[in-house]
Specification:
single chain, about 280 residues, alpha/beta, UDP-N-acetylmuramoyl-L-alanine:D-glutamate ligase, 12 helices, about 45% helix, binds ligand NAX, binds adenosine-5'-diphosphate, ADP-dependent NAD(P)H-hydrate dehydratase activity, ATP binding, Ribokinase-like, NAD, NADP
Length: about 280
């Protein structure tokens, strides 16, 4: 039977925001750890960290090269650098998978051994299947083609672009993880058959760094739902779709604030609190 792709909307997203209560502290809300950025791509770390903070999370821990740590702290001094306990990981943004040092590989393996939910992006996509924690991968079409080729599943960028729904579903089945396949239309699905589709509300999103922002947002949503994810791993699919919805809406607003003009990735992160606030207001709790 053909998969039914359900459109993910504002009211769906509103149900997946964890707002803090009187009994909460930064640790109970959830800590997101990031292993991201590199000397080549320091900006990806800054963007992911900024986006995580703006989505709402108890604490953000960043692990990466010294110079990148400095850039992250300059932008967001709220961030804690170095290892420690976390409730979810975002791994790989701004990392070239062909240039991973032993230190970096150690950090990645250490993170994967934690057993907490993981978002695998860019330079960590190939680590899918090396651990058992609830996992979501966030490739674009070219990255998915490369990932599948490495698993001896023949596909090409053109084939995936022509039928992203089919390939997202196949990847979820073959890899056993949640797949968030990025593009003007984003498909989010899991091996259990949950399948959500989202049309981007603005094509200004097609600019460098917007995927790094999405990764940080999804990491924050996973960290703040750590208790739910511990008893219901399928929640990761809904959280991934929610991240895509908020990301698109934040981009639309950032562009609208400039008369429908272009945006940069950081504009999206900065528009996120307004989107989250409005989603919460529609919930009325
Ligand atoms: N500010 C930053 O630090 C940014 C870092 N980024 C990071 O960059 C890494 C690579 O991501 P991509 O999405 O570019 O990976 P792709 O798989 O799309 O591209 C890989 C490489 O192919 C080359 N390439 C592909 N298409 C090209 C074209 N049309 N013209 C010229 N060169 C082309 C580029 O050298 C690129 O680095 C990721 O780790 C990502 O997180 C990007 O997100 C962009 C912003
Ligand atoms: N033409 C487009 N229209 C709307 N959204 C797009 C378009 N192309 C890409 N996007 C979105 O922009 C983001 C790009 O992410 P990604 O490819 O990882 O970029 P980067 O690596 O530069 O961060 C994704 O959220 C994707 O869904």
């Amino acid at each position: 039977m053909a998969t039914e792709w359900r459109s993910w909307r504002a009211d769906d997203a509103a149900a997946w925001i964890a707002a803090p209560g009187a009994d909460d502290d930064k640790y109970s809300r959830g800590v997101l750890g990031l292993v991201s950025g590199s000397v080549e791509f320091p900006g990806a770390a800054v963007l992911g960290v900024e986006a995580a903070h703006r989505t709402g999370v108890g604490l953000v821990r960043y692990i990466g090269p010294r110079g990148v740590r400095a850039a992250v702290l300059l932008r967001r001094p709220e961030t804690v650098v170095g290892r420690g306990r976390v409730q979810a990981w975002l791994l790989g943004s701004g990392i070239d998978p062909t240039r991973r040092s032993f230190v970096l590989l150690g950090d990645l393996q250490h993170a994967l051994a934690d057993g907490v939910p993981v978002v695998l992006d860019a330079g960590a996509l190939d680590l899918v299947g090396t651990h058992t924690a609830p996992t979501v991968i966030t490739p674009h079409h070219r990255e998915l083609a490369r990932l599948l080729a490495a698993r001896e599943i023949r596909s090409s960028f053109e084939e995936i672009r022509a039928d992203p729904a089919e390939w997202a579903e196949r990847a979820a089945r073959e890899l056993g993880v949640v797949v968030l396949l990025k593009g003007a239309t984003t498909h989010v699905c899991d091996p259990a058959g949950n399948a959500f589709v989202l049309e981007a509300p603005t094509h200004w999103l097609a600019t460098g760094g917007t995927g790094d922002v999405l990764g940080g947002m999804l990491g924050a949503l996973a960290a703040t739902h750590h208790a739910r994810l511990a008893r219901d791993a399928e929640a990761l699919t809904s959280l991934a779709a929610t991240a895509v919805w908020i990301h698109g809406e934040a981009a639309r607003r950032a562009s609208a604030a400039n008369g429908g003009g272009p945006i940069v990735a950081l504009d999206i992160a900065q528009a996120v609190p307004g989107v989250v606030g409005e989603l919460l207001a529609t919930r009325g709790d």
